[in-house]
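As agreed, record passed on underneath.
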Amino acid sequence: MTNSVFRRVPNALALATVMMVAALALAACGDRGGTDSAPQPGDSAVAKVDGETVWASDVKREAVAQGLIGEGEPLDVSSDLFRRVLDEVVDQKLLAAEALKRKLDKDPVAQKRLAAARERILGDMLVESVVSDAVNDNAIRGLYQEQLKLAKQSEEVRARQIVVAGQADAQAIAKLIATGASFEALAMERSTDTATRFNGGDLGYFTADVMPEVYATNLKGAKVGDIVGPFAVEGGWAILKVEDKRLEQPITFEAARPQIVRFLTYDQVRDLLEKLRSKAKVQTLIGQPQDVPGRPQEPADAPKTAPATPVPAAPAAPAAPAKAAKP
């Protein structure tokens, strides 16, 4: 497999991830509703706390902040999850009201924390605004098509395996197969690989690069219908049967979309911060950290633009012999 924008996004998303998580968490700590008019069309009042309205959107926002549902996912007001989160929102309102009664908001430390939370929320709102304008369907599809054109399709193999403890057992099974015995039946009866044994040893479709090297070596040049092995593997000896070969399928737009969105989001956030920093006067008043042997190193910055490399195929094969690949 080759690297692509989709494969390297998780390493490049540290900043975007932090900012998005902060957005969700701070949204939950920010405006909890409380007005008598619906904060958004179709919203409904679900509770009152000392006369202050709790809206369904307040509960849903809290559920998103806690990671209980995804952004944009529905949350049925009759569900147990909704009622549980509603109870938490009510508790938060009661705690906040009591804190105000005790004038904890007048404490200098509390005021600093409230000011910091306000700054974060405003920053998150700016990020959301910039991202929503730039990360649209045209941009997402455009990057997908660009990467798709560069894709190189590798060959996928579908194979079955039988794994046994010793070489003698493996050779005996190979002789049975040579005389016409069913590979699938023998896999179910004798294979020690629990991940594939009960489906006749089926490994599914995979590319050679995702399998242990010994598998790739022995499958090289094998044709459909060939029996390969026995050969030594971790934990025993394996025999393979090549069931099919095909060109690997490129990742679908639906599967790639979340990765593309994350990449474009990161790109927009980084560009925004670079512009803001270039216009601001930022002075760091602390010294550089000492170079301590063994201290973890920060990862290098990711390239600014998507690399001109192919779209990867959809996830396929097992990382080890005991795991089956995609169907």
Notes: Confidence is low (pLDDT under 50) at residues 6-35, 307-327.
